[in-house]
Design brief:
The chain has about 290 residues and is an alpha/beta fold. About 45% of the residues lie in helices and about 15% in strands. The chain folds into two domains: about 1-90, no CATH class; about 130-290, 2-Layer Sandwich (Nucleotidyltransferase, domain 5), CATH 3.30.420.10. The protein has a five-stranded mixed β-sheet, with helices on both faces. A hairpin with a 2-residue loop joins strand 1 and strand 2. Helix 1 runs antiparallel to helix 2 and helix 5 (about 65-70) packs across helix 6 (about 80-90). The longest helix is centred in the N-terminal third of the chain and has 19 residues, at about 40-55. It is elongated, with a radius of gyration of 25 Å.
């Protein structure tokens, strides 16, 4: 550390004076300065460069576990080493904040049974979807986002945004999902007990599409943990990092995040550290109907 200090300050002060201040000899400093970096130091320098690239490509969102998984695709490296080098470079992943709940379960609409029962595993695409609505603050007021996520690949298959959270918002996300997935049958559709999902209009659309509704128990966010987790990730990695003067600014950024980054590039631990799109591509031979999804 003393030699590093001397090198850093040598442009401003004489080396002789700096060595005297730090209690080291000039010959010792020059020997240290001219010494060839060790093999480990050279490898760490290369690895740090690769870490910076992976972290930048993740838009500054990946912590050491995901950076480690990306590096493992083309080199052998230890998890703790990656974490240590990231700390030395001042690199870290995004951290979550508290979120605002948007569920209005104080209504008279009938409630569907909890068919999902926290079984978030799926053996095929379009076997189970989970959905929810969240709020994003902008300079023009709240923007509301509704999503539907396929539990097989964790892909966001339907989404919609509006300046309100009426049933039409949830229906737009549902119509996108059924259109993209070519009107799949026998889907379990799980949400909370929000009035949008319990409304007669939404229930009629599920029935017409041959989709089975499922709803969480009262006040139990863990029953819809995957949807809650997606919103936490979205806000951690995008929403809370920027200011949105207008709703359209947030809409454009969120749409790009979902379609370009989250569905197609961001690796997901639940599906083996690949992206949802890559996971579906890897399994397309087993499920030919996914070719058109």
């Amino acid at each position: 550390m003393r030699f590093e200090f001397i090198r850093a300050e040598s442009a401003q002060f004489p080396i002789r004076l700096l060595c005297k201040m730090m209690g080291v000899s000039k010959s010792g400093y020059y020997a240290w300065r001219d010494r060839r970096p060790s093999k480990c130091a050279r490898e760490n320098a290369i690895l740090k460069s690769e870490i910076r690239v992976v972290h930048a490509e993740s838009r500054g969102t990946y912590g050491s576990p995901r950076v480690h998984q990306e590096l493992r695709k083309y080199r052998s490296v230890g998890r703790h080493r990656v974490a240590r080098l990231m700390a030395e470079e001042g690199l870290q992943g995004c951290r979550p904040r508290r979120f605002r709940r948007t569920t209005d379960s104080q209504h008279m609409h009938p409630i569907a049974p909890n068919v999902l029962k926290r079984n978030f595993a799926a053996t095929r695409p379009d076997e189970k979807w989970v959905g929810d609505i969240t709020a994003i603050w902008t300079g023009e007021g709240w923007l509301y986002l509704a999503v539907l996520i396929d539990l097989f690949s964790r892909k966001v298959v339907g989404w919609a945004m509006a300046d309100h959270m009426r049933t039409e918002l949830a229906l737009m996300a549902l119509r996108m999902a059924t259109g993209r997935r070519r009107s799949p049958k026998d889907v379990v559709h799980h949400t909370d007990r929000g009035c949008q999902y319990a409304s007669q209009n939404y229930s009629d659309n599920l029935l017409a599409a041959g989709i089975t509704p499922s709803m969480s128990r009262t006040g139990n966010c863990w029953d819809n943990a995957v949807a809650e987790s997606f919103f936490a990730t979205l806000k951690k990695e995008l929403v809370h990092r920027y200011r949105w003067p207008e709703r359209r600014d947030a809409q454009n950024a969120i749409a790009e995040y979902i379609e370009v980054f989250y569905n197609n590039r961001r690796i997901h631990s639940t599906i083996g550290y690949v992206s949802p799109a890559d996971f579906e591509a890897l399994n397309v031979n087993h499920f030919p109907a996914m070719l058109a999804a």
